[in-house]
Amino acid sequence: MKVRGMKWLTNWLEERVALFDAMRFLRNQLAKPLPRHVNWLFSFGTVASVFFLTQVFSGLLLMLYYEPSAGTAYDSVKFIIEKVPFGWLVRQGHAYGAHFMIAFLLLHAGRVFFYGGYKKPREMTWFFGFGLLAITLLFGFTGYLLPWDQLAYWATVVGTEVAGSVPIVGERVLFILRGGETVSDGTLTRFFAVHVIVLPWAFVFLVLGHLFLIRYQGISTLDRTDVPEKTSDEISLSGGKPFYPQHVLKEIIVVLLVFAGMVLMIVYNPIPLHDPADPFNTPIGVKPEWYFLPAYQAMKYVPEMVGVVGTGLVVLALFLLPLLDRSPERHPGKRPIAIFMGVGFMLFAILLGVLGYLSDTNLTIMGTLYHFDVYGWPQIIASP
What is the pTM of this model? Predict the structure, then answer.
């Protein structure tokens, strides 16, 4: 009776959704061979995707107790940390997960650049991926304010002031972001709504388009004549291995190692909840998070308008990269100028990030006390 019932169910599904055809299609996609150069670095995108899922899950748990208003937000986060069973772990996982998700999206973008994966005919894949990175940064920006502590409040003040420096429309953008003249309860509710409703749907839409293009066009080879229509047999003959199980196992290993590293950071270096937000008490050395720090630090060395416009032009150039770099070469060894510029850009961004991190701090190095000014330059305060 049970077997007959199962047969009826499978026949019913087959007549309506072509179940077996869908299963065959999925099996063929999983067995699709990959180019020979695909290695462990190609797991970064999957790691970022897994972190997005964990962010959704942990975010839903936090929403059960979080109260998005200036009068209750801080106390609700404190209650989650101190009173809710395992609330501290969920909150730490959500906070650290945001950092890891952004970090691996940046690593993924870097990998795509160095392997030339953005070139024709995969320009749209790059555009979708760039949109995912932008939305993830907005996730970090909007979510950072939600604990409503001193650091979050004043970092948001600084971040929105940068947006207010945009030529012509800056003041209007600033008012829309804040919901008024200052960072207030209206800002918090706006950021919360965007963080939990607008951005997740936008991310899902873009990630579906991104994944569809990847599976439809395939992963680019390092050949000049790479075309999406290259058959699986041709790739297999050139030494490619199937996506499942070889590459899937690599991705699982990388995901587990990264999550183990995050757990260690949660245990040994938890992200603190600072004092409640106080609009009348400005703390010293307020800075944005590390992923905004290079741009923020760069703006200190040039006039404000130049810094804002220059940053915008850099972002635009990165977005339009597939249209600016039309060379068919993909192999890193055959693109020395592009690789040199890419490495230089990364090192410059890291340098600006380090200077931004050190700015407005005191640090003892080999017995000598240094004060790093707003530009990150050291000045000796006391020597041994």
Answer: 0.89
